[in-house]
Amino acid sequence: MATTHTQGAFERSLAALDVGLSRTDPPGFEATLSELVSEPAVGARLPFEGLGLPETVTLDPSPRELEEAVTGVTAASFAVAEYGSLVLPATEDGSEQVSVFCDHHVAVLAESDIVRDIPTAFSRLSEEVGEARASAIVATGPSATADMGELVRGAHGPKTVDVLLVEGL
Amino acid sequence: MSADRAETAARLRELLETEGDSVQANTAVFNRGRYDSVAELDDYEELKDRAREIKEDAIERLPELIDELTESVEENGGHVYLASDAADANRYIEEVFAERGAETLVKSKSMTSEEIEVNEHLERAGIEVTETDLAEFVLQIAEEDPSHIVAPAIHKSRDEIARLIEEVFEPDDPPETAEELTMFAREYLLEKVTGADVGMTGANFLVAESGTMMLVTSEGNARKSAVAPDTHVALAGVEKIVPRFEDLAPFVELIGRSGTGQDLTSYVSLLTPPVESPPIDFESPDVPGFGGSDAEREFHLVLLDNGRMAMREDTHLCETLYCIRCAACSNTCANFQHVGGHAFGGETYSGGIATGWEAGVHGLDSAAEFNDLCTGCSRCVPACPVKIDIPWINEVVRDRINHGRGEGFDFLVDGLVPDAEEGGPDLQKRLFGNYGTLARLGSASAPVSNWIGSLPPARIAMERLFGIDRRRPLPTFRRETLVDWFEGRGGPRVDAVDADREAVLYADAYTNYVAVDRGKAAVRTLEALGVHVRVPEVPESGRAPLSQGMLATADEAASAVYGALAEHVDSGGDIVVIEPSDLAMFRADYEHFLPERSFERLDENSYEVLEYVFGLLENGANEEALRTGDDRVAYHSHCQQRSLNLEGYTEAVLSRLGYDVLTSEVECCGMAGSFGYKSQYYDLALDIGYDLVEQFEQPGERDRIVLTSGTSCTDQLDDLMTREPIHPVELIAPE
Question: What ipTM was assigned to the predicted interfaces of this complex?
C-alpha cells in the first residue's frame, strides 16, 4: 500500500505534468471511467479482479477502430510517485498500441501500485520485465516535441493523459 | 591569412548568421532545464559515479557481454548480427528486407543509422524510407544532415520549417504554428507508419542478461515504429550494452536531464523483442484483433562495430565508448551554441565528444574538420553524465592530427622554440604552443617588442604567417617581470618564522610578463593575511602546448613544473595559482602526465588565489587587512575555474568584504586562450564575447567594476568593453 507521502508526491508530479487524476473505488469504477472516456474508445483488458471495461470501450479493435478512437483505456502495472510516471506493459491484447495510438489515454492504476522512486521502480521492473523477458513503457506525461519551434503535445502519441486511481485495490 | 583559414572563417561567419541564433536559443532552453533539473537531484554526483562505473565495467567486459546478449536475444526468438562496418550492417539490413519482401520502412531517430547512412543504402535498393522523428522528418525533406545528436534540426527555426513544408507538400491550408506543423507531420507520418513493412529503431541501452533494449524518446514514434509493423530492426553500436537490467536505472534519471533538461523524457521503452503486442495488419482495416494478423513477429538486432572494438583498445579513445549520446557537451559548449553541429561536427557526430567518435568510426580526417573548435575550456566536463574528460580526448586527437598532417614549415620555428614536438603541428599551433617562450622574449626586449607588435606591417605579416588576426590587440609585455619585482623589493616581507603558512605564488607567463599588477596584488594580499610568500622562477605549466595538441611538450612541462615545486610541497608549503587554466593543469590534466603520487601531491596542495584567501579568512585571518568596500562589481569567472567548482570562493570573499556581486551566466567568454587570436576564429570569439558583454552592459549594471579571473577573459573583455577589467585580487589587495 502506498503511503500518504508517496500518494502526495504522485499527485504533485501528475499536476506538474498536466496529467489528470481521478479517484474511484471498485463499485464506482465503471461510472467514473465513463466520465473520462470520449468515444469512440478502444481498450485492453484490465488485469484487476472484478474490474471490467464498459461496453462503449471496444476490446480487440480493428485497425480502423484503433485509428479512429479518441480514447484508449489500459491498465498501468504501477506508477512512480516522484516523476508521475506510469509503467505500461506491452500485452498480447495490444495495450501498447491502445495507449500510444489514441489522442487521449486513460490509465487505470491500483492505489497499492505506486512506488516511491526510480530505484524502487527498477527493482520491480527488473523482475516484471527483465526476468520475465517482457516489455513495458515508462510513460511520463503525454507525448511531446519541441522540434517545431515550441513545445507541442501529441507529436505521435496521446495529447492528454488521465490516471484513474482505484482505491482499495 | 592563408586560404584555409579564410575559408574556415567565412564558413563560420555564414553559420553564425544562418544557424547560430536557432542553435543558441534552443541550447539555452536545454541548459536552463539541465541546471534546474540536476539541482533537484540529491544524489547527482553519486548517480554520475554509478553510471561511469557501469560503463567502465561494460566496456572492459565487452566481448563477453556481446556473447551474452546474443544468447539472450536468440533465446527470446530474435536474431543478432554483429556487423564489422557500415557496409556489412547495410548489407545485412538489406537482406532482411529482401527475405521479407519488404518495401517500406518507418524509422525512429538513431545517430548510429546516420553513421552507416542506412537510408541512402536502402533507398538505392528501392526501399521507401520515412523518418518518423519530427526533427529527422524535417531534415529528410530538407535533404540536410543532423546538426545535433539529440535535437538534429536544432538549427532550423519554426518559420523555416513552415516554409519547407509548404514547398514540399503544397498543402491547401499551410500549417504555420508549432501546433499546426506538429499535427500536419503527425497525420502524414501516421499514414507511413500504418503502411510500413518494417520498423527500425536505434537503442540507447541493451541489457546483456535479458536481451532488453531501452529507448528514450518523447514523441512516441519509436513506440509506433517498433510495434505497428511485424518486423523490427534495431541498430546499435556494441558500446550500448550493459550487463544487468538494474544497470539501466541511473541512466534513466541522467539521460533526459543531461540532454534536454527534462527530469524524465516522456517515454522510456523497455522492450524485450520480439514484443508480445500483436502486429497490426493495416491491410485488413475492419478485422477485429488489430487486423487479425497471424504473422510472427520478427526481430533483428544489428550490433555495429565500425571501429569501436579498436577504440576500446585505444587508451585515450576508449572513454568515448562511455558516451550515452545525451549531447550535454554540445549544449554546454559556447562555440557549439554559436555555430552548431554543421561547423562543430564531422561526418555524423557533433559537439565535444564528436571528435572521439569521428576519430574512432570515420578516422582522423573527419575529426580534423572541426577538432580545433574545442578550446579545452572544460565546461562540458561537469555536464557529462559519465564524467568523460572530453577536452583531453580532443587534445589527444589534435596531437594525432598534428603529427599526421605536418605542413613542412618546421624549420622556421625549430631553432626558435624549445618545444618537444618533432614535426607535425602547423606554424600557428606551434607559435601559440610556445607562448611562454614568446612572452619571455617579448618581456626581455620590451618596449621594442611592444612597439613592433603595434606596427601595421608587423600585424599583417603575423596574420599571413601565423594567422594572428590583426584586429585583436596583442598583450603588452612588461620589462620588469613579477619575479624581478619580487626580488627587487627584497623577497618576502612576512618572515617564515612569523607565518602560519608558506606559499609559492606560481608566476605563469601572463602574470610574470604581462599582467604583473595582478601578481603584485596577490603578493600584497597574501602577505596582509600573514602568509610567507615566495615568487620563484617556475617553468610554464604546459597549458599553452596542451591546448594546441602538443602533448609531448606539455608532458615535458609537467615534469619540469613538478621538479621545481616538489621540494616546496614536500616541506608542507602551498602553491597559489592566479591563472585558472594553470590550476586546471595541476588539478586535472597532470593526471595524464605525472606519476599518480606526484599528481596527487600537486593537486592537493595547489589553490586558486581567491580560494586560498577564502581558506585563510575561514581560518581566522583578519579580513580588515584587505580592501573592503561596498562597490558594485560584475564578476566573470574563468571557464576552467568554474569546471573545478571554484567560482563560489571568489563570490564568497567579495561578499564577505562588502562588495555587491553580479556573476556572469554565460558558459564561456569565447576566448579560451589562443582561440580569439586566431584569424579563422576571431569573429566567432567576438560573437561569444558579446553575450557576456551584453549581460554586464544591461541598464543598471553599467556602473559595476568588471572583474575577471583568467587571462583570456581579461583580454576578451578588455577588447570588447570600455571598462577595463581587473582581477578580483586587485580589488581586494591592500595598497
Answer: 0.98
